[in-house]
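Lecture notes, continued. The same structure-token format from the folding unit now serves as the input rather than the output. Read the line below as a description of shape only.
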């Protein structure tokens, strides 16, 4: 037996079938939504939003804050050298255990 799967895409506003919906991303009060809209509803929503967008300010992602903070390689070498002087077992590469980092920070004052 053969199976055939048909995907029918519909407009999220009028529920009519549409072959190439426009994806619209919306953000409001720290929440995000996505709508698939037919050409007619996309034009209507765009017209409504244009009035709001014209009055607002564009906000860009300034980056930063999203990634992990890492120490410069020279600092890590200092930590490794200090740990070896203290008789602690640290590898020459890779992550330094948190307990070693805490001890180093405490020793530095």
């Amino acid at each position: 037996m053969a199976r055939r799967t048909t995907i029918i895409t519909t407009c999220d506003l009028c529920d009519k079938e549409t072959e190439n919906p426009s994806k619209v991303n919306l953000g409001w009060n720290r929440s995000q939504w996505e709508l698939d809209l037919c050409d007619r509803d996309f034009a209507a929503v765009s017209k409504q939003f244009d009035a709001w967008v014209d009055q607002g300010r564009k906000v860009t992602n300034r980056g930063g804050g999203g990634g992990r903070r890492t120490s410069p390689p020279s600092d890590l070498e200092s930590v490794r050298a200090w740990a070896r002087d203290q008789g602690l077992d640290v590898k020459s590469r890779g992550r330094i255990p948190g307990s070693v980092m805490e001890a180093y920070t405490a020793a530095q004052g």
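Point for the exam: The longest helix spans residues 39-53.
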